[in-house]
Amino acid sequence: MQSLRIGWMLLLATGIGILGFGLITSAYPQISSDYSGIKEEELLLRTIGVATTGMGIFGVMITLTAYRRGEKWAWLALWYYPVFWLLHLALGLPPGNDHVHQVVFIVLSLLGLLLPVRRFLYSKSVQS
Fold this sequence. Notes:
Layout: H1 2-27, H2 39-67, H3 72-77, H4 80-90, H5 100-114, H6 117-121
């Protein structure tokens, strides 16, 4: 039970991070020096920010409801967190050239998913 509590708290932190990232990217899309600064790229970053905001909201809601209740589908769905951050890191996606936050969120999300793995995979009390 303790591992599930720690897990949902870590995943909540990851969801809030994604939500914050989306809001910041939507409001302040910064083009790095690698880009030509065309307005279309700024619009694209804003669009990505809005989509990321939605993803953060969904992740937070899934974490606070179904995952917290121990529902297996929520655990499976939240595997998009480490995938999102790994792709973000591997592809060097903007904004920013500092990738420390990506590594932190990869670690948080993996811990949040793996600490309670027994509850989700081997427990008969898990709801599907």
